[in-house]
Amino acid sequence: MDQGLLKKLKEEYRITFSKGELLEQAFTHSSYVNEHRYLQLSDNERLEFLGDAVLELLVSQFLYREYPTVPEGKLTKLRAAIVREDSLAKFAKECHFDQYIRLGKGEEHSGGRTRPALLCDLFEAFLGALYIDQGLAGADLFLEKIVFPKITAGAFSHEMDHKTKLQEVLQQSGDVNIEYRLIKEEGPAHNRQFWTEVHCNDQKIGEGYGKSKKLAEQAAAANALERNLH
Amino acid sequence: MDQGLLKKLKEEYRITFSKGELLEQAFTHSSYVNEHRYLQLSDNERLEFLGDAVLELLVSQFLYREYPTVPEGKLTKLRAAIVREDSLAKFAKECHFDQYIRLGKGEEHSGGRTRPALLCDLFEAFLGALYIDQGLAGADLFLEKIVFPKITAGAFSHEMDHKTKLQEVLQQSGDVNIEYRLIKEEGPAHNRQFWTEVHCNDQKIGEGYGKSKKLAEQAAAANALERNLH
């Protein structure tokens, strides 16, 4: 197994596989297996089959918990946006998994290492291997580092960002009035800054700033959520 | 909560919910919620969203484990056949869940209680509730009683039946020669019985009988699997 990958997983994600052969299998593309038949390797396709379902459940569970009042239809759309091929390919690249997959020469030369479908499968195969090795909780911890922060940052739906999350949290205890107030703006047109406060039932609960009114409101909501949690 | 449902779950499936409100929610259709707004109930749609993913993972895991040499493409097709609407509606009916769902009057009069989409959603919602209440292992135990035996009986793919399973098991330790031998047939044409033995590398490992050669072979394979396991 590539020592760089083992080191990276350990240092960045605190993951050490007890069954190293699973990790190896997750990073083995069928094109590599076909070119090295004498090694009798297994490719990552069956792990991808399993990992696909692991991801689906963990993302569903996260959305179910984090957005307790969002209706099913919206959750389903959001889930689909998160588990789609190009999203997962991005996650794989962000983890630099593309550097470690073993490809056959043909696949390598035709640019397989940057192909979204291949990277998406790799990400799912890794999750499948992680699930077998460390259970649902282990796979969940990994997604907490890589996927979930993107969801709450609104990467998949602007409706699921900090503002929506804050609304969710506050409305759990009944109807409330949430208001974003622009307090100040300054600087030249090309580099303007906006300051915003968020109020709940006329009480200030957070503040933030940003390069647009929208970003300032997001920052204020994030600030309110943070205060609310601590 | 309907006492009949509680009793049935306990006696037939050894399931007792610690959070009874989850079970209640799983058996509450949106049409019932809409007709009883003053009760401020929650319908089962969000639980269905979650349960759908629980089912997907548990079925995937089962297939991954039970068929260690079946390629990903075949597993994916089989999974799709198992989790499709009409299959899940049948499972819901088999558990008599249709008797217990709370429907609005309109939905009831238009035959909602027998509608496959509604029953499918109900089955998934129940699984979602069971997962929250008793974790993945609890949901898995339920599927072990209701869904998995159908898979190994070949209900979703004749290729995944006892004969295929036996082949899977035997081939794990290398190439083997499996042979089904018709030993005897008797009885009148309209009620004929066939006796079959299954041999592995010329050693008898199972026997069975049935109303056709095919059924007799399935019975012999099931017998061999049983002997192999004990």
From TrEMBL, chains A, B:
GO terms for biological process: mRNA processing; regulation of gene expression; rRNA processing; tRNA processing. Its cofactor is Mg(2+). Residues 161-230 form the DRBM domain. The active site is at residues 52, 124. Homodimer. The keyword Magnesium applies. Digests double-stranded RNA. Involved in the processing of primary rRNA transcript to yield the immediate precursors to the large and small rRNAs (23S and 16S). Processes some mRNAs, and tRNAs when they are encoded in the rRNA operon. Processes pre-crRNA and tracrRNA of type II CRISPR loci if present in the organism. Digests double-stranded RNA. Involved in the processing of primary rRNA transcript to yield the immediate precursors to the large and small rRNAs (23S and 16S). Also processes some mRNAs, and tRNAs when they are encoded in the rRNA operon. PANTHER family: RIBONUCLEASE 3, RIBONUCLEASE III. Keywords: Cytoplasm, Endonuclease, Hydrolase, Magnesium, Metal-binding, mRNA processing, Nuclease, RNA-binding, rRNA processing, rRNA-binding, tRNA processing. Residues 6-135 form the RNase III domain. The keyword Signal does not apply. One of its GO terms (molecular function) is metal ion binding. It is an enzyme of class 3 (hydrolase). This is Ribonuclease 3. It is found in: Cytoplasm. Its EC number is 3.1.26.3. Belongs to the ribonuclease III family. Mg(2+) binds at residues 48, 121, 124. NCBIfam families: RNaseIII. It catalyses: Endonucleolytic cleavage to 5'-phosphomonoester. One of its GO terms (cellular component) is cytoplasm. It holds the Pfam family dsrm. It comes from Enterococcus alcedinis.
